[in-house]
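Entry 14. Ran structure prediction on the chain below.
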Amino acid sequence: MRPELTVMVTTGDGDCYGEGGNHFLHAVRRDPDITVIVHDNEVYALTKGQASPTTERGAKTRLQFDGVTDEPLNPLALSLVAGCRFVARGYAGDIAHLADIIVEGARHGGLAVIDVIQPCITWGKKLSHYYKDKIYRVGAEHDRSDFDAALKLSRTPSEKIPIGIFYKKENAASDLSRSSGETAGKETAKPTLSGNARETLAELLKDFE
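Output, structure tokens:
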């Protein structure tokens, strides 16, 4: 175990919510000190465009010729009801905002789930212009510690799509030690990122603009 490390996982909507859905649920339950960044493009892009768990109902793909018949999975609501203490959504078209979310998620002591809306320009049906007038940042009036408010926000109708930190709940030091793999009763401080972490992330994320 290396509790001094900051651990990040990058995955896709198909990997995390579909094929790895059972692992995802139990990771939320265990609450390890990991930041999970999900590239959610609502499609299995690497396997030629089949529907993923987040593909909207009615969407036609290379495999679902008549349109998807299932309701899409709501990953934020799922994370919340499963007990995740840090739940957020970012947008690949808002790099600075996304960098801030990732930094805060990495500093959180426990599992942080960050669902990133990331249009697939090859197989996706929703490109950047689709989101232009739908995306909005969650305002300061939103109480991140309010579970019911976070759940309601996660179920916002698709006409408007909020991005930001929906829910954040701090935990006791003993729980943080447990999730870091330390022995019972021994406190371990959460590793901190360097002061220029936001600038570094923003620079790396420019490749996806």
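Confidence is low (pLDDT under 50) at residues 173-189. Will compare against last week's run tomorrow.
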